[in-house]
């Protein structure tokens, strides 16, 4: 979608066109999810944050200033929703973190170091 198409879709969404807002959701949902996931480390929280962010954007689309970029405005909403979620997260045992997108099943160096420390491995070979 080029800049003139994006501006037209945004203008239609601001006038209440649900299909146009749906196009904005489709265009920006992946990036919003990745941001929320990075902030929370939890897929379920990230999905909830994205949904809440788009609801807030839909309700406040009339306040959006057309001279700004919609993606930047939405990014800020996602950040605010994620911060709200993190503030209200219950204190206690940490929720399981989701590995960053694209690296599932690939333990990082930190994971290996933690396992080695738990089992008494120093990372050095015998006699070294």
Primary descriptors:
Rna Polymerase Sigma Factor, Chain: A, mainly alpha, 5 helices, elongated, about 0% strand
Textual characterization of the structure:
This protein has 128 residues and is mainly alpha-helical. It has helices at residues 3-14, 18-40, 43-60, 70-88, 109-118. The protein has one domain (3-118): RNA polymerase sigma factor, region 2, helix turn helix motif (Rna Polymerase Sigma Factor, Chain: A, Orthogonal Bundle), CATH 1.10.1740.10. Helices cover 64% and strands 0% of the residues. The N and C termini lie far apart (60 Å). Mean pLDDT is 79; it is low at 103-128.
Element layout with pairings:
Elements: H1 3-14, H2 18-40, H3 43-60, H4 70-88, H5 109-118
Helix pairs in contact: 1-2, 2-3, 2-4, 3-4
Q: How many DSSP H or I helices?
A: 5
- How does the helix and strand content classify structurally? mainly alpha
- Percentage of β-strand residues: under 5%
Cα gyration radius (Å): 20 Å
Average of per-residue pLDDT values: 79
CATH superfamily: RNA polymerase sigma factor, region 2, helix turn helix motif
Low-confidence stretches: 103-128
Give the number of domains: 1
The total beta strand count reads 0
**How far is the N terminus from the C terminus?**
60 Å
CATH level-two architecture: Orthogonal Bundle
From the spread of the alpha carbons, the general shape counts as: elongated
């Amino acid at each position: 979608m080029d800049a003139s198409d994006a501006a037209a879709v945004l203008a239609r969404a601001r006038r209440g066109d649900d299909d146009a807002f749906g196009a904005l959701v489709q265009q920006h949902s992946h990036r919003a999810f990745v941001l929320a996931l990075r902030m929370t480390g939890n897929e379920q929280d990230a999905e909830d944050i994205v949904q809440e962010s788009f609801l807030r954007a839909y309700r406040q689309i009339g306040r959006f200033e057309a001279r700004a970029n919609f993606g930047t405005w939405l990014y800020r909403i996602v950040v605010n929703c994620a911060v709200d979620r993190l503030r209200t997260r219950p204190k206690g045992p940490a929720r399981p973190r989701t590995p960053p997108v694209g690296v599932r099943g690939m333990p990082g160096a930190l994971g290996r170091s933690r396992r080695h420390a738990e089992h008494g491995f120093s990372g050095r070979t015998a006699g070294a």
